[in-house]
Write a structure and sequence with these properties.
By secondary structure, this protein is an alpha/beta fold. Helices cover 31% and strands 24% of the residues. The protein folds into two domains: 155 residues, 3-Layer(aba) Sandwich (Rossmann fold); 131 residues, Beta Barrel (Elongation Factor Tu (Ef-tu), domain 3), CATH 2.40.30. It has ten helices and 14 strands. A hairpin with a 2-residue loop joins β7 and β8.
């Protein structure tokens, strides 16, 4: 299993072991192929330095536009896991609060990147902006980094026939019901990671108990039924079928959530953190006339999900 990166939430008073890294800058929401492209560039520039990311929590948009719908592709834990898989050893996760947002561009470079982190080399995209009111741009960063003896690589966006790969584009794919296409741009299936909470336990009454995971600050993808794999706390990945939505058949209010039924698995996951990865969209959410009709459809959904997941993994689902 990949070693998790060290998560550092303050730039002040760091020991030498946590300074002098090659640092990629950005929000890294989703940790997609474009982000991996930036990480390869900064590592190539300073292969002997520890590989690090400087990012923010919460996402700046969550501070400045708190009434916007939830939009995150990855929260802190999922982002760290994805970065670890790309070889990142340190995540400088700066708490993005009102005080941090007031740091000038000059203070960000001088106090955070230079004095605090002792950065050896930086990499970012050409549109990276920073400091109070986004007062620092790539030209300013280049000038100040050179003066301070910090290397800088400006990495052009990674693009395909549709244009630059971006978090915005991946969000749109998920909202339109194309998790496979989103996975191709992420480099892995998109997952909702969170604690399993108590539901109404109606699934048990029709033979399909579920692990319920609130979407919380995650983006809400297309509502409907998905073939999924659920990564458990012990690292096991269990195939299953999940509904994402508001459960119109039982009139369960206005908050969407993930309800995942794990195939051939039985256990207690309440309070534990799992990651539900979406592999394929099976159908849109809809209201049924009765629980009997709902159960019939769930059986069909489960059969379709099993067959689809087996084609993705010819060896079949993992033993549990």
């Amino acid at each position: 299993m990949q070693q998790p990166p060290q998560i550092i939430r303050d730039w002040r008073g760091l020991p030498d072991a946590l300074r002098g890294a090659a640092v990629a800058l950005g929000n890294f929401d989703g940790v997609h192929l474009g982000h991996a492209h930036v990480l390869r560039a900064v590592h190539a520039a300073r292969p002997g330095a520890r590989l690090a990311v400087l990012t923010f929590e919460p996402h700046p948009r969550e501070l400045f536009r708190p009434d916007d719908p939830a939009f995150r592709l990855t929260l802190s834990a999922e982002r760290a896991a994805a970065l670890a898989a790309l070889g990142v050893q340190i995540v400088y996760e700066m708490p993005f609060d009102r005080a941090f947002s007031l740091l000038s561009a000059e203070a960000f470079v001088e106090e955070v990147l230079h004095q605090g982190l002792g950065t050896a080399h930086l990499a970012c995209g050409p549109d990276f902006a920073f400091g109070h009111r986004r007062g620092g741009d790539i030209n300013y960063l280049a000038t100040r980094a050179e003066a301070l003896g910090i290397g800088l690589t400006v990495v052009p966006p990674l693009a395909d026939a549709q244009g630059p790969i971006s978090s915005t584009r991946i969000r749109r794919l998920l909202q339109d019901g194309y998790p496979e296409r989103a996975a191709a741009e992420l480099g892995r299936p998109w997952a909702v990671r969170g604690p399993v909470t108590h539901g109404e336990k109606r699934g048990r009454t029709i033979g399909f108990s579920t692990a319920n995971v609130p979407l919380g600050r995650h983006l809400e993808p297309a509502r409907g039924v998905y073939a999924v794999r659920v990564t458990l706390p012990d690292g096991a990945a269990v195939p299953g079928v999940a509904n994402i939505g508001r459960r119109p058949t039982v009139n369960e209010g206005t908050e969407s959530r993930v309800e995942a039924h794990l195939f051939d698995w039985d256990g207690d996951l309440y309070g534990q953190e799992v990651a539900v990865a979406l592999h394929a969209f099976l159908r849109a959410e809809r209201k049924f006339d009765s629980f009997a009709d709902l159960r019939t459809q769930i059986v069909a959904d489960a059969d379709q999900a099993r067959a689809m997941l087996a084609t993705l993994d010819p060896a079949g689902p993992p033993s549990t």
